[in-house]
Amino acid sequence: MVKITMSQGAGGERMQEFIREFVLKELDNDFGEIPLAALDDAAIVEGIAFTTDSYTVKPLFFPGGDIGVLSVAGTVNDLSVMGATPVALSCAMIIQEGFPGEDLHKIMRSISATAKKADVRIVTGDTKVVEKGAIDGLFINTSGIGRRSKALDHDIREVRKHRRFKWNWPNDSAVAAGDVLIASGAIGNHGVAILSFREGYGFETTVKSDAMPLNHLIAAGLKVGGITAMKDPTRGGLANLLNEWSDKSKVGIVVREEDIPIDNAVLSACEMLGIDPLEVGNEGKVIIAVVPETAEAVLKAIRARPEGKKARIIGEATKEVRGVMMETHTGGKRVVEPPVGDPVPRIC
């Protein structure tokens, strides 16, 4: 009998296999403009973006945030990368009996503050209390809906000035040769902060989670226009994201190691722990594919936002390679493989 393992819910190839076997195989998956089968960050149904996510992070409180921040920011970002303006969220909680009331107040205050920062509202929800030992304290699910961004029509017109574009929404299958890739900031901070704090490595003194809503930053990029795809590199990190784009869009991707922003403390932690920073999850970064003609203007608009000051162009899509290739500091090249799973479990 097949039994589900942790790796099947940790991002990467094992989770993709799990989804194909247990989800897409059993459900109708072709409904909507961007349907379930696309496995994008949100579905598009009758012009509305809709997404859901569950948060099981351990610990609940960590340097730079808590499960409340994650539960709002993650869902807001999943709507925003589809070119939608987030409007409203649900919030459902599964709480272990005996959970400290003061901790729940802190988490709810984080939910409220993060929702206000993102200009969204919590409009419905659900609460269940389960017996001790059933879960680790608290799990949260948030679902969200979003309207088509007012800037999205302009964005797509800019794309179509320079190449054929058959979609009405940015998505994972829309990256084409020539598109420039922009990272909105330094990668790996969230996963390293969680791991360090959980295991007591001490890096938490300098590394904090990057968890934050990115809808305002993304809106600034859309106003410039020319964006073809966006995605937040959560479980499986940048390596997983780039391989998803390459696979779904049937295009090669080349990134330059020296251009990928990574904070020194994160790099040191990854080297000490023997993990690849490209595979570490993030909760406050977005990777953007944009036509080359508007790439510099989009980068400038993103850098003007406080959450995008470290944004950089990190590479481009190309027909010259297959899969994902990285040009290294030493002048060589290495294949960036899709991770089997996230090297840091329970980060969100």
Q: Could you characterize what this model shows?
A:
With 348 residues, the chain is α+β, with helices and mostly antiparallel strands. The protein has 9 helices and 14 strands. The protein has a single domain (6-335), classed as PurM-like C-terminal domain (Phosphoribosyl-aminoimidazole Synthetase, Chain A, domain 2). It has a 7-stranded mixed β-sheet, sandwiched between helices. A 5-stranded mixed β-sheet has the order 1-2-7-5-6, with helices on one face. Helix 3 (101-118) links the parallel strand 5 (84-96) and strand 6. Helix 2 (67-80) runs parallel beside helix 3 and helix 6 runs antiparallel to helix 9 (295-303).
Number of spatially distinct domains: 1
Low-confidence stretches: none
- Oligomer status: single chain
In sequence order, what are the helices and strands, one letter per element?
HEEEEHEHEEHEHHEHEHEHEEE
Number of strands: 14
The CATH homologous superfamily is termed PurM-like C-terminal domain
CATH topology: Phosphoribosyl-aminoimidazole Synthetase, Chain A, domain 2
Net shape:
globular
User: Largest sheet, described in full?
Assistant: 7 strands, mixed
The amount of beta strand, in percent, is: 15-25%
